[in-house]
Amino acid sequence: MRLTRRFILKSFDNIPLSNPIRYERYYIDDTVRIQKKGNCYEKEILNEENILIQKIAITKEEFLELKESAYSKIIRDSYLYLKDKSVSIKKYYGDYEGLNRIEVKFLTIDEMNSYIKEIWMGNEITSSPLAFDKDLSKLNRKEFLQELRKYL
After folding, report:
1. CA distances from residue 107 to 3, 82, 83, 126 in whole angstroms, order as listed
2. Digit-coded pLDDT (tens) for 28-64
3. Which end of the chain, C or N, has fewer beta carbons within 10 A?
4. Which conformational region is residue 108 in: left (phi greater than 0), alpha (psi within -120 to 50 degrees), or beta?
5. Cα separation of 10 and 25, whole Å?
6. How far is Cα 3 from Cα 13, in angstroms, rounded to an integer?
7. By the 8 A CB rule, do 101 and 92 touch?
8. CA-to-CA distance for 89 and 113, rounded, in angstroms?
């Protein structure tokens, strides 16, 4: 079980964040994605619950070849919230521009269920298609904007 809750971020103003790491992700199918993370190239295998089960380093050439067969791409920057290492923020570009997603990770179910979000956190999206890149990757721009409007 994933111990994560996800929220919308409306503004980056006055939030102390780390320098971003750029992710360029391509979805080959429901269980395989490739990504460029900074200067590293990786192939990731996911199970049916969208949980990472294997990560393999690949060459730039392999990455470029595999991305040709992708059905979707996601480009985002990932930041750490400097006041709490269990909180990260993802800022999306391209087809998913406008989505700024907060992810809060927990060690226990009780901790997750009793969590009170920070004042600067927006609506919760944990159960929406905006919560995970795999689900997001299946939305076209129109579907994405309709979904995003529900939470802004």
Report:
1. 7, 19, 17, 17
2. 998 999 999 989 999 999 998 888 999 999 999 999 9
3. N
4. beta
5. 23
6. 27
7. yes
8. 20
Residue with tokens 């990504």: 35
Strand partners, 27: 33, 72
Q: Domains in the chain and their CATH numbers?
A: 4-149 (2.40.320.10)
CB atoms within 10 A of CB 29: 10
Dump pLDDT digits (tens) for 76-135.
Answer: 999 999 999 999 999 999 999 999 999 999 999 999 999 999 999 999 999 999 999 999
Given a contact cutoff of 8 angstroms between Cβ atoms, the answer to whether 82 and 88 are in contact is no
Residue 133 token pair:
């890149």
